[in-house]
Model the fold of this input.
Amino acid sequence: MPAQLLKEVEEEVTNFLSDLIRINTTNPPGNEIIAAKYLAEHLSREGFRCEFFESAPERGNVITRLKGTGEKPSLLLLSHLDVVAANAQEWSVEPFSGVVKDGFVWGRGALDMKGMIAIEAMALKLLKRNEIKLKGDVIFAATADEEQGGLLGADYLLRNHSEKIFAPYVLNEGGGLAIPTRNGNVFTVQTAEKGILWFKVKAKGIPGHGSMPNVADNAIMRMNKVVEKLGNYNSEVSLVPTVKRFLSEIAQKDPVLKEPFTHLLSNPELSDVILDELAKVAPQLAEEVRPRLRMTISPTIIRGGVKENVIPSECETVFDCRLLPGQESAQTISLIKGLLDEVNSEKLVFENMQVQESSESTAETSLYDAIDFVLREFEPNCGVTPILSTGGTDSRFFRRKGSVCYGFQPMYPEESSGEVPKREHGIDERISVENLVFGTSVLYETVKKFMS
Ligand SMILES: [Zn+2]
Done:
């Protein structure tokens, strides 16, 4: 029987998501324990044996497993329970109400990523209810702390309970949203993410009276040069496999983008010119592509000065640098130090704050093929493309251990193109009931296909 929309689960998956949103898991502090217990209870009622892990007081993680015959490698359905803060004053509904109206479930976490917890849990329940024969284990894990780096969630579980959570294949957040093109939707699968390098630069100077700048040495003025140098640094363009394939899949699907993307693929060194041109007709797409071609450095925090009439002897700036897959943090640090030398090496201090290496999974797997196959059953004319995300997810911990991880929460574009990503971490976050049903249906069929 061909794949079909599971309309019958609409109410169940919708109510479940509303319930999850009502449990406030804003991180910090997280308090995921209540959501983890709720989830464990919910799945236990369906006969699942859930295991509960408290990585720190009030920080809950929950894992369960559907056994397969062992003929195929196991697959982990991964999610995180925590959400970012929401300012109720800015919202048009109470952010933790989980209200269902106008065909949407509203609330913090609806997209990132309680919506996917609901979809994954629903798919898991259906696999059990329908007694689907699985050739490999399907593991379900909802974890803590993703929004603060994952050290008390996915990272903790992999370090301490690897036998419970590790799987060679992982489905997680980060992709799945369809990009509408002139020839139908192109569904995205996140196969790679950029790495993070947060660092600080401290500038020194000599203090003095604000009325006599000539006899002092102003640290802010020195920092000004640093910000100018690093903030405008145009790093080398590099097309990683995920981005190459993304550009060619979109070019195939959209006649208007065929020319600029083909041009870009053969002349990456001209990317700025090509994207400036593209920005005239497709500004949002051009700006989405730009940071995926190179390492970026953004100054994000600046501190300096103590008093109106004192020339400051110290100033510091924090930079958020994002690395492409294949770019190592150590090499990037030497590059940055080289740039600082050009400003003034003696009076500048570099301080490394946090490093998360980039990661990339190949799209040449049977799981990717299963996703591709299932999506075409729902929309025969659709395309499927790997994407690189600029932000990080818990997938990096698993890719480090050798897992193939895909960010895949299947969704049709909601509202006008590009509106959905903006609502993650944003105001009035919401997911359509239609997408909850679609997501559940696609995920369920994908697991069945992969495990049969
Ligand atoms: Zn998330």
About this structure: The first strand starts at residue 51 and ends at 56. The chain has a mean pLDDT of 95. The pocket of zinc ion is lined by residues 80, 112-113, 146, 173 (CB under 6 Å).
